[in-house]
């Protein structure tokens, strides 16, 4: 904000100086060099552009006060304020020199103000010696003095001598020079106060910088400790991950082994259940076979012995063929069962090398069961053949029975049809008999009637 304010003030000051120089040029153009001095009102109108108005003077004073207040501020902006002050002085000195040169040119053209260039030259030298350090205050004082001179010149009569004017100008310039020196002294005092105020701030800044360096050192140390802790944490996480991985692997192997044991137990139970089921099926087949043999024997006793030898020979050949087919089917089923269970037993033996003894026991038990199953299978085959033979025989008997039933049905249908025909013929005969009796009665009545006549 201070920088912006200083820039704005400098621009306003520069515009006002440019406006003053423009007014001076306009005055030079408007003044008639050959015309004598006229009335005070005319002189006032002609000379007014040379001076700054009261409003502009107040504005200049406000700007100078703002500049002094901005320059008096402590802190980091002091350096920038000093730089701005130096640049303002340099540029303002150039503008003042240009303005004084224009005034010199203007005064050389007027005989009534012939002593003004000497005074301005003396003032320019004084300002050059003082390096125009407080040129803003000088402008305001010069403006006031020139305004006073203008008012006095306008009120005096035209007959006043040039010596009075020169004396008044000299006194006004001396007062202005004294005011400038006083302001320069005041500025030096303010600069000293500013430097004195800057010293504790510099000490505090130095202390703060030392504290900041200590804080940076502590921060670097803390960062190193943090990095070491992060490395240790990362190493610990790796070890923990390896331990967790090993634990998970061991748990997986344990669960797999438990599942394999459960599967072995389940398969053992299934095999036991299958053996028990086979035993039950064999016993059931044996019972059914006995019952069927008994029933067939009873049926065979009741069947007549009128069948020919050719029929018996074909019947025996068909029964043998059926028995052979049944035997082949049973052998295929047995082979399928053997092919289904033996690979599973071998796979279980390979997977469970640690439990070889138990598997050997199971295998021995399986072998025992197979040895026990051999005669049972033979018995089953025999019973199967006998069953097939009996089933074939039953099938033939059922077929023969069906044929007999069909024949019986045909004979029954034929007899029923013949009975229906006989019934109809009987009804016809009965009707004919009734008609004959009625005819006989009618003839008897007529004969009786004729006899009486």
Automatic annotation (TrEMBL):
Write the record's keywords in alphabetical order, separated by commas: Coiled coil
- From which residue to which does any coiled coil extend? 166-232, 380-446
Transmembrane segments in this chain: where? none
Question: Cross-referenced InterPro entries, in alphabetical order?
Answer: Syncoilin (IPR027702)
Decide whether keyword Coiled coil is in the record: yes
Is Hydrolase a UniProt keyword of this protein?
A: no
Query: Record's Gene Ontology CC terms?
Result: intermediate filament
The name of this protein is Syncoilin-like
Origin species, per record, is Clarias magur
């Amino acid at each position: 904000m201070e920088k912006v304010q200083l820039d704005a003030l400098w621009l306003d000051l520069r515009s006002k100086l440019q406006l003053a120089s423009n007014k001076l040029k306009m005055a030079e153009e408007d003044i008639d060099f050959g015309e004598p001095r006229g009335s005070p009102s005319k002189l006032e109108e002609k000379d007014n552009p040379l001076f700054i108005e009261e409003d502009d003077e107040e504005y200049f004073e406000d700007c100078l006060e703002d500049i002094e207040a901005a320059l008096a501020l402590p802190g980091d902006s002091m350096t920038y304020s000093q730089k701005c002050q130096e640049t303002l002085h340099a540029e303002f000195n150039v503008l003042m020199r240009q303005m004084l040169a224009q005034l010199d040119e203007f005064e050389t053209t007027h005989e009534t103000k012939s002593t003004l260039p000497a005074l301005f030259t003396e003032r320019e030298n004084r300002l050059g010696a003082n390096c125009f350090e407080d040129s803003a205050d000088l402008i305001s004082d010069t403006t006031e003095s020139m305004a006073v001179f203008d008012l006095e010149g306008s009120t005096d009569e035209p007959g006043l001598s040039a010596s009075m004017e020169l004396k008044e100008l000299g006194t006004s310039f001396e007062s202005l020079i004294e005011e400038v020196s006083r302001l320069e002294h005041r500025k030096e005092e303010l600069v000293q106060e500013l430097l004195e105020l800057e010293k504790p701030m510099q000490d505090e800044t130095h202390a703060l910088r030392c504290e900041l360096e200590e804080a940076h050192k502590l921060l670097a140390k803390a960062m190193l400790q943090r990095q070491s802790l992060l490395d240790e944490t990362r190493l610990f996480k790796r070890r923990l991950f390896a331990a967790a991985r090993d634990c998970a692997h061991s748990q997986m192997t344990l669960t797999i082994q438990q599942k394999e044991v459960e599967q072995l137990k389940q398969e053992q139970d299934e095999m036991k259940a299958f053996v028990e089921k086979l035993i039950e099926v064999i016993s059931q087949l044996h019972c059914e076979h006995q019952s069927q043999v008994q029933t067939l024997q009873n049926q065979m006793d009741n069947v007549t012995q009128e069948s020919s030898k050719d029929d018996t020979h074909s019947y025996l050949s068909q029964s043998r063929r059926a028995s052979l087919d049944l035997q082949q089917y049973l052998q295929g089923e047995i082979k399928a069962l053997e092919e289904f269970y033996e690979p599973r037993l071998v796979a279980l033996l390979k997977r469970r090398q640690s439990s070889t003894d138990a598997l050997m026991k199971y295998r021995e038990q399986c072998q025992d069961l197979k040895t026990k199953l051999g005669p049972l299978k033979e018995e089953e085959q025999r019973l199967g053949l006998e069953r097939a033979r009996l089933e074939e025989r039953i099938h033939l008997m059922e077929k023969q029975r069906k044929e007999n039933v069909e024949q019986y049905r045909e004979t029954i249908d034929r007899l029923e049809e013949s009975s229906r025909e006989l019934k109809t013929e009987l009804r016809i005969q009965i009707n004919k008999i009734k008609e004959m009796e009625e005819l006989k009665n009618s003839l008897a009545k007529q004969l009786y009637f004729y006899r009486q006549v």
